[in-house]
Amino acid sequence: MSNVNDQQEYIEPELIEEDSEHKISKASDVVTILDRFQVYLDSPLKRFSSLTSKAYKAIDKEDPSNLLFALIPEEGINPRINISKKFMGKGLNGTLKLIAYSSEVVKSEGRSATFFIYKKPLGPALADIYKSLLPRELPNNIIRPILTTLRLLEQQAISHRNIRVNNIYFADKEQTELVLGDCITSMPGASQPVVYETIERAMADKHGRGTGNASDDIYALGVMIVHILEGAQPLHGYSKYDLLKMKIEEGSYSSLSPAQISEPRLIDFLRGCLSDDASIRWTIEDAENWVESARVTPPQQEKTPRPTRPFEFNGKSFTNTRQIAEELGQNPGKVQELVDGSIYHWVMKDLKDVESAVMISNIIDDPIRSSNVFMFSSYMCMALDPYGPIRYKTLNIMIDSLGYTLSYYVINSLPLIDFSELILRNIAKDWLERQMLGPLTTLYGKLIQKLGKILRDKRIGGGIERCLYELAPGLNCLSPLLKDEYVTDIRGLLPALNRVAPYVNQDERPLDKHITAFIIANLDSKDVLPHLESLRDVNVSYSTLGMLSLLATVQWRCKNKPVPHLSQWLGKHIKGAAEIYRNVDTRKKVLKRLEKLLKQGSLPDIYQEIGDKDRRRADDKAFKVAEDEYVLAMREDNLLVDDYQELHFHGHRIGEQVATVAGIIFSIFGIIGYMLYTLMAAIH
Amino acid sequence: MPSRKKQAEALYKKQDDQRNQFQKWKKKSVAYIFISVVLLAFVAMPTLIVLVVGLFPSVVAGLVDKSMTRMFGWCVTSCNIAGVFPSLFYLWTNTNSIDLAFQIVVNPYRLIAMYICASVGWVLFFTIPYIARYIVVIFAKKRVVSLESKRKELRDLWGEGVGDKFKKIKKLEEEEDRRYNN
After folding, report:
1. What are the tens digits of pLDDT across the range A617-660?
2. Between chain A and chain B, how many beta carbons pairs sit less than 8 Å apart?
3. Spatial distance between the Cα atoms of A335 and A357, rounded to a whole number of angstroms
4. Which of A623, A655, A660 sits opposite B158 (nearest CB)?
């Protein structure tokens, strides 16, 4: 579980680097993206960098006057590729313009990564000038444009989750147009200092803070305004534990807001934005109304009840259940100590929280939930902090971060069993039932059900790999076969396989669990599921044919160019698959034609040749006839060879019948002959 | 496909039915012959005398018939009739009296002619089956060679897998036989 001290998260503003002067770079330090943009890895731009991504100088070869910079996510970070397209082209007003993105190799780091090319803002970052801002200027000059942008993002169903003073810029030198900085190159909220996150999301691990919604952005906006008013990051220097303790016990507004606010109308805004109860926190509309008229009543938040005595657990004193849950989540093995320490009585008598006490009691009495220490601990955390993150073993995550968490675990080679158990042991489902997420509850419920089904299916195209690509669209394919490639788009899969084909062990199949899952998650299920069934066939020939048909579907759907190296690789496996044709002559003809097609590299043509349904049907039909003929021949042969005695009897019986007929004929001829003889004698 | 047990039961039933039918038919034949003899005794006594003496070998053949098809009697009778017919014709075209009938049955030439014809039937019935048996075996051997060649042709065209169905059926039948025998 992440235990990062978040004090160093705040990056002090840097001076704006001059773009005009640039030292001569080594060839290895220059990466060319899409044959157009040159990224200078020896020229970092610290003011655009964050905890999870590094910024570098970039130049547009076609238009050098176009001022750009490149952002590259740190290793092990999964960017939000799925929303990146919405920021491209005309983009969204009020955000940095994303010019292009593409995957390339970072030679100096020996890895592949996605490069995001942004248009560089001409003005300074808000972090550079906020100390000179007057409080009365904030509603119109800072809050209003940010709300307008947040409204646009909300319409696109995007939460920014990266609002802070050093990620907001002025797009022009005159400092009239404010734009939100990057929110794509890291997992949602992962770059944010803990103070900028709501209590629930701050308690989660960085990769597990979740996509959230506009409400989380409003909260971050509120914290940012406090940051501007105070002239420094609020509660700077506090540990995560102390910061959360203050927020939980005092409430975010009370613990963060400055003692003196020279602009009284900002008090209402901060109270509305910094409410810890998401259901009463201001919406964008509330905040907009406040900017326009300042006649919006801020919510009144109930204070957390104070216990009559603190609860001692794991050597620390606690005065609220949420932090006990946080401590227990980090030390699940100590759950028995918690029960022995009479947590039930403390919650019931000292906190007077009957509802939580009953939940704790139910969990203690439940033989299934209390049978396993990790499950027991997880359910106790749920009872103590129902709206906190899901805590199970190494996981400490929000429900809307499942994809990012899983990808983070896979990319960083962390144990995946925890994630599987989270779903299969119904922990995520039970956590969800305690939430009040409205329509999202059904949505996530269905998602968890689907994940459970996929996880139980251990065959190729199922399992944790499929979950990974279903949950994290835009994640690069993590197949070992593609370790030197960085395939984030299904259209790039076959060209990448074609490139690696000459260098891999061709005895291995080109489809492993990762590539199969990647294809299924990225193509329409109606297109791929029939091929998946063939791929899973126990008969190797049919399975190989399924592999070919799946890859052919990808080539056809993505309109990929021919892939001769890949088809040669496939050829080694397909030749065996030709055995689905029983007729030796047909098989030879198919193989002969395949030799030619394999060199051309069109997988649909190859599939059409080997998997032609009419030909297969005719072959099967003829084979059944041949089988029946063989059975009949064998039966007759057995009859003739094994029942030799019967054969003699049979001959004898025929002989007797023939002899009888011969006797009758003899008699008839004898009588007729005698009659004729007598007649002739009478005539003469 | 019916099971081996049912096939065997059907075969035994068929054989039993055939045996019963034959017994019934035999009893009926004896009855008809007896009635014919009685009728002939009243209507055509001379003819009856010639027939009784002339068809004696047929009666004997019918009584000792242990052949597979029970056709020995028929074969001998049909040839025997050819030998008796000239004597009957002679009887009917002359006085057709009992005296003439006795003259015919004591005439050694006529008796020899009747019995030689009967013996031709006897010879036919004992030689032809052996020849037929030989021919059938020769044809069977040729058929075995032809079947083997056909199977090889099928194997060459469809691979060894073409025989899998027969192996499966054989295995199933063996298992069924084992169960049936147990």
Report:
1. 999 999 999 999 999 999 888 888 877 788 888 899 999 999 99
2. 154
3. 16
4. A623
As a whole number of angstroms, the distance between CA A269 and CA A261 comes to 12
Dihedral of the alpha carbons of A224, A230, A231, A234, in degrees to the nearest 10? -60
Q: Taking phi first (over 0 means left), then psi (-120 to 50 degrees means alpha), and beta for anything else, what does residue A207 get?
A: alpha
Distance CA A271, CA A261 (A): 12
C-alpha distances in Å from residue A239, one per residue of A18, A32, A95, A247, A324 = 36, 42, 32, 12, 16
User: At CB < 8 A and 24+ separation, what contacts does A84-91 make?
Assistant: A84/A116, A84/A184, A84/A474, A86/A156, A86/A158, A87/A184
Pair A1, A205: CB distance under 8 Å: yes
Residues 71-130 of B with CB under 8 A from A: 71-72, 74-76, 78-79, 81-83, 85-86, 89, 117, 120-121, 124-125, 127-130
- Taking CA–CA distances from A635, the nearest residue in chain B reads B166
Block residue for tokens 């198919």:
A590
> Residue ranges per domain, chain B?
44-181
Q: In this structure, are residues A653 and B69 in contact, taking their beta carbons and an 8 Å threshold? A: yes
- Note the pLDDT of residue A11: 43
User: For residue B88, what are the contacts with CB-CB under 8 A and spacing of at least 6?
Assistant: B47, B50, B51, B54
* SS3 labels along B96-126: CCHHHHHHHHHCHHHHHHHHHHHHHHHHHHH
Q: Which helix (H) or strand (E) holds A118?
A: strand A111-119
CA nearest to A565, candidates A492, A502, A627: A502
What per-residue string of b and e applies to A290-318 under the rule 16 or more CB within 10 Å gives b? bbeeeebebbebeebeebeeebebeeeeb
User: Looking at the complex, does the CB of residue B35 fall below 8 Å from at least one CB of chain A?
Assistant: no
The CA distances from residue A126 to A12, A37, A146, A408, in Å, are 11, 27, 12, 31
- Under DSSP, the state recorded for A140 is I
Q: Is residue A16 over pLDDT 50?
A: no
> Exposed, middle or buried by CB within 10 Å (0-12, 13-18, 19+), for A38?
middle
Rounded to whole angstroms, how far apart are CA atoms A521 and A528?
10
Closest CA to A382 of A403, A409, A355: A355
Q: Looking at chain B, which residue has its C-alpha nearest residue A678?
A: B86
Segment A130-137 long-range contacts (CB within 8 Å, at least 24 positions apart): A130/A165, A130/A227, A130/A228, A130/A231, A131/A231, A133/A228, A135/A229, A135/A261, A135/A262, A135/A263, A135/A266, A136/A263
Q: Which residue has the tokens 């004698």?
A: A681
Query: Residues A112-143: pLDDT tens digits?
Result: 788 999 999 999 999 999 888 888 889 999 99
Q: Give the pLDDT confidence score for residue B58 in this predicted structure.
A: 93
Residues A438, A442: Cα–Cα separation, whole Å: 8
> Is the four-CA dihedral A512, A518, A524, A525 of positive or negative sign?
positive
First to last CA, chain B: 22
CB A82 within 8 A of CB A469: no
Residue A287: both structure tokens together: 């905040």
Output the six-digit token pair for A230: 């105070």
**CB atoms A667 and B79 under 8 Å:** yes
- Coil/strand/helix, residue A277: coil
Strands A311-313 and A316-318, bridge-based pairing: antiparallel
DSSP 8-state code for residue A413? T
Torsion, CA A520, CA A522, CA A524, CA A529, rounded to 10: 0
